[in-house]
Amino acid sequence: ARRAPILAIESSCDETAVAIIDADGVLLANQISTQIDFHARFGGVVPEIASRKHVEAIVGVVDAALDEASRALGLEGGPLAPTELAAVGVTQGPGLVGALVVGIAFAKGFAYAAGIPLVTVNHLEGHLFANLLDSPDLEPPFIFTLVSGGHTMLVHVCAWGDYEVLGETLDDAVGEAFDKVAKALGLGYPGGPVISRLAKEGDPHAIEFPRAMMHSHDFRFSLSGLKTAVITYIDQQTKAGLVIHLPDLAASFEAAVFDVQYKKAAEALRATGVRSYCLGGGVAANPHLRQMLTEKLERDGIRVHLPPVSACTDNAAMIAMVARRKFAQGDFASFDVDADPNMTL
Ligand code: KG4
Ligand code: ZN
């Protein structure tokens, strides 16, 4: 059944997510069960808790997705059956190994029982394919910036499936820097959404934070110095008995991170001669980053594509988009496939 829908599972970190898309790439179901509340009190994701919560959630999330797809298709005689699907896609890596294993083990059993093929998906490629959700006709070449909790990289997307990584972070990822700064300020986990809300009311020029690697003339990044600078600033203000203006701090931190992102993206576009740009990963949900990159790159004559805000952080819709392409190419996985926690693009 080549035109049947594909079900995709994502469990690489702290979201148990299941999506179903039809053969034309139309989303029929998009379910996410988040574990954030269970991790928040520890200030970050606890791998053992993540695995256990995936085990508890996965059957319910798959059922909810099948129900949602049945409603979308207007099916009367009960929910969509697993045997009516074309394939099961699942995130193979990178991510937390115990979390990935839950999704993969479930996907294998489900595909085997339904007699349908298994397709494995690289989570990082998923973040790129999130761009297709709003613009299904997108075609490479692009320069792609991936900014998530675990990764920060600039990629030359020569064709779908053909990726040249131009540079990565030498230490922390951008999302990780947001999370660590938020933790230092006692703002909880995850840090990105809180900091971007505060930054709206702040002055990005209030505090001069370092822009590491800004002039390094390569495509590598470094975030740990900025994180240290912010923490040092917090300590100094506190010791001097001065109140910290959180919106100004948040806006100044964002400006330091995002100035470097724009500079390197513009350089990568110039160096490759590519005229089209995509963004992805959890930090791509940030309104200031979206607005600033769109304005500046369009002024440079670049076509800018952004994923829908809801598909920037981890979800299964983006995994389904990759699975659909691999399925069409007959690129199936064997049933003895394993999680690959350190997978790269
Ligand atoms: O892509 P993602 O959901 O997970 C990984 O694959 O890592 O990204 C999560 C990261 C977290 O570090 C979170 O703080 C960050 O994305 N994030 C944001 C925003 N929303 C989420 N960072 C900045 N601004 C946001 N609005
Ligand atoms: Zn992710």
From TrEMBL:
Substrate binds at residues 146-150, 179, 192, 286. It is found in: Cytoplasm. Fe cation binds at residues 123, 127, 314. Required for the formation of a threonylcarbamoyl group on adenosine at position 37 (t(6)A37) in tRNAs that read codons beginning with adenine. Is involved in the transfer of the threonylcarbamoyl moiety of threonylcarbamoyl-AMP (TC-AMP) to the N6 group of A37, together with TsaE and TsaB. TsaD likely plays a direct catalytic role in this reaction. Belongs to the KAE1 / TsaD family. This is tRNA N6-adenosine threonylcarbamoyltransferase. The chain holds residues 466 to 810 of 810 of the full protein.
